[in-house]
Each structure stands twice: as structure tokens, then as C-alpha cells.
Amino acid sequence: MLLRKDNSYIKKKSAESKRLPQRYIKHLNITNMKHCGRYPQQSFDMEFQAHLNSIIGGRGSGKSTVIESIRVVTSNIDNLKNSSLRLHASLLDFLDKTKGVMQPESEISLTYVSDNVEYELSWNYSSKKVSAKRKSNDGYEALESNDSVIKQLCPVCIYSQNQINELASNTHGILHIADQSPEINKNDWDARWAAAENKLRKLCADKRALERDLTDYLTIKNELEHVKKIITQYENTGVADIIRKYNQFDIQEKSLLESNCFNDISAKLNEVANNGPDLPDFPETIFDHDNARNEIAAIYDRYKKKFDSAKNAILNLANDFEKSGNEFQQAIKFSQWRKELEQNQNDYRNLISSQNSGTQPPDLALFNESIRRRSLLSQKFKELEHKKHRIPAIDSEIELISDSLIELRSELFSKRKNFIENIIKNNKYVRMNLIPFGNFSSAESDYRSILNIDNLSYKDEILNKDEDPCSGLLAELASCAADDRNTVLKAVENLKRRTIDIAKGNTDCGRTFAKRLKSIFEDQPECIDRLLSWWPDDLLVMKYRVSEQDDIYNDISRGSAGQKASAILAFLLGYGDCPLILDQPEDDLDNALVYDLVVRQILEIKSERQIICATHNPNIVVNGDSELVTVLEFRNGEIRVLQSGALDAPEIKGAVCAIMEGGTEAFVQRYKTIMNDKAR
Questions:
Q1: Res 358 pLDDT > 70
Q2: Neighbouring residues of 367: CB distance < 8 A, sequence distance ≥ 6
Q3: Any idea where the domains of the chain sit in the sequence?
Q4: CATH says 15-156+578-679 is which class?
Q5: Average pLDDT, stretch 488-502?
């Protein structure tokens, strides 16, 4: 039977007889693209089976359009940034109305099943956002969502042949893929890292503020000591004591002798008694009734006596206040305190007299000003001393935060290493080794980016690789062995210290470069703060197996395009449980590698994970036992589903043979030729 290989082909069973993966894509719909679903009542619809789906068709039939549409509607656009900016830019062109395939009315929708819950994702060109609905007994309910929510609810892994090539050239992209796993949970790690990093930057800003305040610390300290010496000189000659007592007595005298409380009250009481209204005589003439006149006259006379008595009492009280005031002043005047005050005043007059006569005159104004300055400077110096003692405490906190950042990096390294080892432990095609802080390849670009220094300037000062050995600030790090963790960390700390020293003018360097660092430190000090929390990323070293027969592994950088692609595919096929979508992964592989690597691993994982593969290679479709084959064609300017069905359907076998083998006659003739050659 054509396309049947009895020792590997498995008769397709109904979908109901197989256990479904936890997550899988069920349906894709595209409307109003330039070459897809653009006619009324003819939207592009594509069904998917929960296991292996093969998408076939001639070149230009729309296979990549389907893959990229799934990428868009599952919010995986930005994921390309981490593996290739070039491919990300290409995808943006795909979404562009002028350069790409989109129109103002273009829409993409996808049905996704996760844990038996059905979701509908929708994207349209006008909003350029993905919305989500969840199916319930009452229909679909809209969900509040963003890209992160979409990726969490409906995760997919999508890799094109170009992406695989990029990952082979830059294995850092593999780390990004690993970081998205629940085992590593990089998002949680990023949040903890950002919190520690922000705390470090705040401490650095606080320290700079203190250092700015302390710029006049020595000036204040020296001036205070000078003022204290002046005061000490006055104190040693007794002049200070005379002046200090004079000032004190002056204050006391003003408080005591200039107080007029007694006299003030006496004066106010006299004013009330003497200048206030008197109660007039009884107005007899206005009363013509004897009984009334006699009654009111008696009342009037009684209270007239009380009024006059009260007024006399006020006058007597005023006299008492005045007398007490005079007695108070006399008591003060003849007190011992008064005698001491007068003696001090006499001493002070003698000082003034000696100053006026020119015989070693004490500068009283200088002494008084020194006393005032000492008070002000002492308070200022006390504040600066507190700030000065705060700096060592901040330095200790900065050191603790730096240590915690190292611990966080070590934690991330351990999670990455365990994850990678678990993924490849049974993989015979690839080996991976993770080296902490070992990725120096981007160190120079990171350093320049952090400090906002362009890539062409200050080569000699930063890193000159043309010299042997290389020179510049990064030379020590560049010459480290990647697997010598302690040496690497020491080189990084030296790099940071030397950079800060140059920025502060504490060490010699090229004048122009030193001036640039100084301006950065003064105008953009946060750049230096970012440098403090920088270390090289971990380095992933990948090796591929040279041949099936030999247990020899070479570094992936030395492999052919096919060998590189095989190593990356070995990792991608061995990781994850969400739908895996591959766009022509076989392009760089020979048929032996396609069967040994891709087909064998697909057969191992497809019962647990949905795979959607757009391919030109019949090995994947046939020997991978595709549960569903979808045949695409481009006709009359439109991408269409020509046929879709199980591999054992005659029309599907015919399409596979026609598209991938050049037709029945060509396939049979090729088969006979090969078998006849083998028989000889």
C-alpha cells in the first residue's frame, strides 16, 4: 500500500479512543486578509486534531501564513524579540497594512482547549489586541485579559526554521525559552530582582545626597575649631567671664527692673475709679407721687452708698499696687544680686575703657560674634556628623543588597541548570552545560549601553581586542576563563570600582574618557547605579553528537547548519507540554536526521502533546503518523484548504504523494531504482 510502512505505521484510531493532551488548539479562522478569507461567506477555517497535525502544500500555498496567524492571535509577537530582532521586525512587516497581508477589516480567531475548558481568542487589525472569551453552559463570557493572561491561559510554543537557526547561532535564546517554564518561573524571579535592584539604587541615591551635603564638612569643622579657639583665648584671660556675666545680668535686669506690672495695674485702677461715671443724685422732680418717690429714693440711696464704697475700694487697691511696686523695686535695688550686677557693670566699663585707650583692648564684638557663630556652627556640625556616620551604614546595606543580588543570580542559575539537565538527560543528540556568569560576549555592549556610550568611541579605554593581550577596562574580564566563577566576579567588581574611581576623578585615565565618565556621574548618576547591579549572564554551551555510531560531541558553533538545527530541535522537542508549532523545521536537515531526530521524537511525544508542523518532508507526515493532514493551495489569489483528513484516507495519501513525492509514478520509479541498486 502506497506510503505505508508496516513496521511503523499505526492505523489511525478515532480521536475519542485517544487520551487528549492537557492543552490543544481546536480551530483557526481568518477573515479579510489580503490573500486569505477575503470573500464574503468564504472565511478561512482550519480544524486541528489534538495530536500530530501536518500542514502541507506547495511553496507559497500559505503554510507560514497559518503559523504566523497563530503566533499573532496567541500574543506571541514579542517573544521573537528574545530570539531575533530581525525575525521580530519581519513579523511586524507581516502585520503591516502596506508591507504585509493585513487589511483594516482583518481578523483572526482561534479556539483553544485547556484542562477541558474551551477559550476563544480574537485579534483584529483595528485594535491590534487579543481578546479572550471562556465557554460556559450559557455560551462564551468575555474575560479581562492582556498578553500575559493570554499566554498563561493558552500557551503555545512556535518555532520557524529561521528561529531555529538564530537559536543555534545565539544559545542565549534557549535560556529565554527555559526561563518561561514553571520550574524556573522567571517572572517571579524578575520581580524579586527588580525589588532588590530598586532598593540598591535608592541607597545609592541616598548616599550621593549625603555626600553632597558633606562637601563643606571640613570647612564647617575648621571654622568651628577656629571660633572655639577665639572663645578659649577670651576665657583664659577672664574677659569671657566678664562679658558672659554682663550679657546674663543685662537680660536679668531687663526682665526684673523694667517690669512695670504693679504700676500698670495701679494706673488702670485709678483710671477706672477717677475717670469712670458717677452715680448722680436722686431725681426727685420727676416723681409726683409721694409713695413712689419715697420707695425709689430709699433704694437709690442704699445703692449710692454701695457704689461710692466700691469706688473707694478701687482707689485703695490702686494705692496698694503702687506701694507694692515701689517696695519690689527697692528690694531688688538693695539685694546681693544688685551688688554683683553693679560690680560686673563696673568691670565691663573698665574693659570698654581699656579698649578705647588702646592698651591691649579686647575685641568685644569679635567675642560676641564668636559666641553666636559657635552656636550656629555646632548645630550644623552635629547634623553633618550624623550624616557622615550614616554613610558607612549605607555602604553596609549596599554590600548586603549586592550579596543578595549575587544569591538571586545563583538561585536562577541552579533552576536553569536543573531544568536543562532534566530536559536533555535522556537525549542522545545534544549536550548542554551552563556556566554561571560566563557569557562575556555581550559584556562590552552591556557596559556601553548602561553608561550610554556609543559603540565606536573610547575603544582603547573600554576594550581593545586588537592588542595582544587586549587592553582597556574590560580586558581583565575578557581574559577570564568562563568557568572560573570567583575570578569572573572579582574582575566584574574591579571593573565597577575602576569605573567609579575614574568618574570621581580618583584615578588616571584618558582625559577625554575620564571627562565623559565624570559628566555621566554628575548628570546621570543612575547609570553608575545600574552598573553596580550588572553581572554577565549565564553561558549556555551546546554540543551536538557527531554521528549515531560515535559517542563524540562537538561545540554547536563548529557544526553544519543541519547539525546545529538538529541540536536545537532535540531540545525544543524534549521540552514542554503546550502545543508545539513548527514551521518547516527540516529545511537544514538531511533525510536521515529528519527520521532519526524529528520523526522519532515526534512519535515519542505526540500522545502527550499537540504538534502542528508545516512541512515539505514526507518523513514527518508519513512516518510521524499524522493524525490530521491539511493540504493548502493558493488559487485565484486566495489561500484555501484543499483537503483535510486522516493519513489513511485515499485522497490525503494521494495529495501527500503528489506534493511531496512528485506523484505516484515518480515515487514508484524512484523506489524501484533504489531497491534495484540495493539488490545488486
A1: no
A2: 230, 231, 234, 239, 240, 243
A3: 15-156+578-679, 238-361
A4: alpha beta
A5: 93
Grid cell for residue 18: 485517544
Write b or e for each residue in 549-587: b if 16 or more Cβ atoms lie within 10 A of its Cβ, otherwise e: eeeeeeebeebeebbbbbbbbbbbbbbbebbbbbbbbbb
Mean pLDDT of 80-107: 82
pLDDT at 292 over 60: yes
Give percent of the chain with pLDDT exceeding 70. 87
Of 615, 478, 477, 576, residue with least CA distance to 174: 576
Q: 10 Å Cβ neighbour count for 288?
A: 8
3-state DSSP percent of the chain in helix, strand and coil, to 5: 55, 15, 30
Residue 483 contacts by C-beta under 8 Å, 6 or more apart in sequence? 435, 438
**What distance in Å separates the CA atoms of residue 164 and residue 567, rounded to the nearest whole number?**
10
Side chain identity at 247, as an amino acid letter? N
What is the rounded CA–CA span in Å between residue 443 and residue 478?
8
Opening angle at CA 473, ends 471 and 474, nearest 5: 80
Written as one letter, the residue type at 162 is N
Distance of CA 182 to the CA centre of its chain: 21
- Dihedral through CA 326, CA 327, CA 332, CA 334, nearest 10? 110
- Give the 3-state secondary structure of 299-314: HHHHHHHHHHHHHHHH
What is the maximum span of the chain, computed from C-alpha positions, in angstroms? Answer: 170
DSSP per-residue codes, 269-280: HHHHHHHSPPPP
Grid coordinates belonging to 200: 540598591
User: pLDDT (tens digit, 9 = 90+) per residue, 5-54?
Assistant: 444 444 444 444 468 899 999 999 999 998 898 876 678 999 999 999 99
- d(Cα 203, Cα 205) in Å, to the nearest integer? 5
Write the CA distances from 625 to 399, 600, 607, 618, integer angstroms: 59, 11, 11, 10
Over pLDDT 90: what percentage of the chain? 36
How many Cβ atoms are within 10 Å of 660's Cβ, its own excluded?
21
Higher pLDDT, residue 335 or 202: 202
Are 527 and 453 spatial neighbours (Cβ–Cβ below 8 Å)?
A: no
* Residue 545 pLDDT > 50: yes
Residues linked to residue 542 through DSSP beta bridges, in sequence order? 432
**Dihedrals phi, psi of 77, to nearest 5 degrees:** -70, -50
623-645 burial, b if ≥16 CB within 10 A, otherwise e?
bbbbbbbbbbbbeeebbbbbbbb
Q: Is the peptide bond before 469 cis (omega within 30 degrees of 0)?
A: yes
Going by C-alpha positions, the residue among 356, 367, 358, 122 that lies closest to residue 228 is 367
- The distance from CA 447 to its chain's CA centroid, rounded to whole angstroms, is 18
Q: Nearest to residue 583, comparing CAs of 559, 558, 607, 611?
A: 611
C-alpha cell at 348: 565691663
Distance from the Cα of residue 543 to its chain's centroid: 34
Radius of gyration for the chain, computed over Cα atoms and rounded to the nearest angstrom:
47
CA distances from 120 to 38, 49, 71 (A): 21, 17, 15
CA distance linking residue 340 with residue 334, whole number of Å: 11
What whole-number distance in Å separates Cα of residue 608 and Cα of residue 311? Answer: 114
Do the beta carbons of residue 230 and residue 243 sit within 8 Å? no
- As a whole number of angstroms, the distance between CA 459 and CA 246 comes to 72
The answer to whether 174 touches 95, Cβ cutoff 8 Å, is: no
Strands annotated E in 526-637: 537-545, 553-555, 580-583, 611-614, 628-635
- Nearest alpha carbon to residue 69 among 141, 13, 124: 124
Question: Within a 10 A sphere around the Cβ of 52, how many other Cβ atoms?
Answer: 24
